[in-house]
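lol forgot to send this yesterday, sorry. struct tokens for the thing we talked abt
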């Protein structure tokens, strides 16, 4: 059965106001403000939202738990780091929230750079870091689906570990889905083996087609044991009533970024990973690629999903997203600022164009 296409948003889990051009208000990260966004997502057709992680931000799992408690359908995509959590503690926390929220938990496993020493972790070589991530994901899956788990691995050891409450199967869903990102060979090896959804940033169609085909081939080569790997796109979507207005606003936003050298946009650029470098390299190929993939933001900050934008009217952006969907992408994590305004605008103008007729 073909995977269902789903549309999620992004909730800015930040200490400093004004993230990526968002409206700066004193209570920008209060529970009431973030709940207003989560409720707007429910009201405007979104499945949920990614809640980012990193040292120096509010604790992601706590934020996601609070938002789940104040909503009824909102599904948090909770970003977590294996070095911040150990697998049994994480598996228990996630199982508990999944139970309390009625099965609304999604998980995004992050292996990128962070201030690891601040919470007692260490860097190590890339291959070792991704080997630990792979083991973390494998152990968490076992804890969610087995009882009395014994595990004696290179990075983690468990004896007779049973997570409670047990996660109740819901249709074909046995446990929260594991989203994962990364463009290096080591990262793609982890995705092919253990992820449920591989997330990409906003690359041109031909580039993502090549990556999808490579990951499908890798999945066959490693004798993947899970359901077929799904693919997701995390990207900025700048949507306005007309194409002319969208490009005018994009250029104005870029001008503001240039004046501040991308202040509040640099959340993926302390150390440039393989995936981030791929986005930055796109600038050499032109400011606009495909129909409306804007690469110029990378000159002044960008960072992650803020490095490339899809710009245009709702019809133009929807047409571009349908082309990504035709490549096999089923999970879309979109955003633009001001976050609350764009939740409503894009929920009302863009999402109806992407639903099945």
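and heres what i got for the seq, position by position
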């Amino acid at each position: 059965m073909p995977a269902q296409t789903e549309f999620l948003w992004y909730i800015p889990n930040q200490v400093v106001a004004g993230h990526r051009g968002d409206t700066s208000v004193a209570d920008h990260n209060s529970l009431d403000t973030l709940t207003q966004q989560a409720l707007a997502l429910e009201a405007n057709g979104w499945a949920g939202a990614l809640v980012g992680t990193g040292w120096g931000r509010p604790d992601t799992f706590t934020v996601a738990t609070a938002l789940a408690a104040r909503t009824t359908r909102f599904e948090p995509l909770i970003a977590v780091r294996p070095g911040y959590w150990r697998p049994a503690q994480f598996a228990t926390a996630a199982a508990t929230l999944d139970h309390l929220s009625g099965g609304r938990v999604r998980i995004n496993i992050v292996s990128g750079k962070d201030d690891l020493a601040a919470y007692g972790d260490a860097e190590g070589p890339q291959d070792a870091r991704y080997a630990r991530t792979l083991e973390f994901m494998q152990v968490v899956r076992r804890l969610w689906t087995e009882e009395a788990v014994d595990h004696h691995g290179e990075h983690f050891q468990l004896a007779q570990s049973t997570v409670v409450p047990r996660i109740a199967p819901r249709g074909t869903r046995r446990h929260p889905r594991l989203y994962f990102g990364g463009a290096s060979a080591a990262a793609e090896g982890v995705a092919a083996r253990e992820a449920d959804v591989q997330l990409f940033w906003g690359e041109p169609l031909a580039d993502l087609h090549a990556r999808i085909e490579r990951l499908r081939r890798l999945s066959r080569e490693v004798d993947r044991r899970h359901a077929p790997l799904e693919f997701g796109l995390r990207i900025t979507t700048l949507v306005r009533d007309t194409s002319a207005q969208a490009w005018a606003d994009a250029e104005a936003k870029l001008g503001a970024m240039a004046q501040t050298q991308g202040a509040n946009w640099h959340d993926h650029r302390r150390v440039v990973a393989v995936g981030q470098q791929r986005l930055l390299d796109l600038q050499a190929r032109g400011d606009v690629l495909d129909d409306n993939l804007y690469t110029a933001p990378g000159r002044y900050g960008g960072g992650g999903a803020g490095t490339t934008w899809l710009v245009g009217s709702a019809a133009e952006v929807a047409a571009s997203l349908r082309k990504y969907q035709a490549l096999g992408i089923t999970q879309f994590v979109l955003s633009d600022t001001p976050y609350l305004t764009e939740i409503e605008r894009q929920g009302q103008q863009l999402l109806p164009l992407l639903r099945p007729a």
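Residues 182 and 188 are 7 Å apart (CA to CA). anyway ping me if u want another try
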